[in-house]
Write a structure and sequence with these properties.
With about 200 residues, the protein is an all-alpha fold. The protein folds into two domains: about 90 residues, Tetratricopeptide repeat domain (Serine Threonine Protein Phosphatase 5, Tetratricopeptide repeat), CATH 1.25.40.10; about 90 residues, no CATH class. The chain is about 70% helix and about 0% strand. Helix 6 runs antiparallel to helix 7. The longest helix is centred in the first third of the chain and has 32 residues. The radius of gyration is 23 Å and the shape is elongated. The chain starts with 6 loop residues before the first helix and ends in a 10-residue tail after the last helix.
C-alpha cells in the first residue's frame, strides 16, 4: 500500500514542471516569434553565412530582413559585406552608403568601406575611411583577437586598418612615381570587420 504524497513533494514536482514549461515557452517566444517579427533571425543567419563564406546565402538573409525593415543599419551593413564578398563592389559601396545614412557613427562600416575603396584603388578615400573608423571605434585598430583568429585558423594576426592607414599615409606623402600602394600578399590577408552580437 502506497503512502499519500507529501504536500512539499507535490509542490516541488509541480514547480519543476511549471519552470520547464516557462523556459520552453520563453525560448520559443524569444527565438522564433519575437525574433522573426523584428528580423533578428535573418540578421543572425546572415552573419553566420558571412562567417562561413556563403556570401550568396548571406545576401538572401539580409535582403529578407531589409524587405521587412528597410532601414535596419545592421542589415544594410551585412548586405554590403555579402556583396563585397561576391565581388559586386559598386553595389557594396551603395549598401555601405545606405548603412551610414541610417547610422553615421558606425565605425565598422567605415573600416569595411575603406577596405573596399583600397581594393578599388581609391587610396585617399580609403585612408579617410580608416581614420574615421579608428576615431569612432579605436578598438578596430587592434584587429581580431586570439579567439577569432583561432576560429579562422589564422596563426598570425592579419594587418589591421591602423597598419594599413599608417602605410597609406606614408606612401601618399611620397612623390607620385615612388608610391607603392598595393602589397598583394598583405592585401589578400585583410579580412572584413563585422559587428558581434545583436545590432
Amino acid at each position: 500500500m502506497s503512502e499519500p504524497a507529501q504536500p512539499v513533494g507535490q509542490f516541488v514536482k509541480w514547480l519543476a514542471v511549471a519552470t520547464g514549461v516557462f523556459v520552453i515557452a520563453a525560448t520559443v517566444y524569444g527565438y522564433i516569434i519575437q525574433d522573426d517579427e523584428a528580423g533578428a533571425l535573418q540578421y543572425r543567419l546572415g552573419n553566420q553565412r558571412l562567417e562561413d563564406g556563403k556570401y550568396a546565402e548571406a545576401l538572401g538573409e539580409f535582403r529578407t530582413l531589409l524587405g521587412v525593415n528597410p532601414g535596419h543599419a545592421g542589415g544594410l551593413f551585412g548586405e554590403a559585406l555579402a556583396l563585397m564578398g561576391l565581388g559586386r563592389n559598386l553595389e557594396a559601396l551603395d549598401a555601405f552608403e545606405r548603412a551610414l545614412r541610417e547610422k553615421s557613427d558606425f565605425g565598422a562600416v567605415y573600416a569595411n568601406r575603406g577596405i573596399l575603396q583600397d581594393r578599388l584603388g581609391h587610396h585617399e578615400a580609403a585612408l579617410a575611411d580608416y581614420r574615421r573608423a579608428l576615431a569612432l571605434d579605436p578598438e578596430l585598430g587592434d584587429g581580431p583577437g586570439w579567439l577569432t583568429r583561432f576560429l579562422r585558423n589564422q596563426y598570425d594576426s592579419p594587418p589591421t586598418i591602423a597598419d594599413r592607414a599608417q602605410y597609406l599615409e606614408a606612401e601618399l606623402s611620397k612623390p607620385l612615381g615612388e608610391r607603392r600602394l598595393r602589397l598583394p600578399e598583405q592585401d589578400a590577408e585583410q579580412r572584413a570587420y563585422k559587428v558581434e552580437g545583436e545590432f
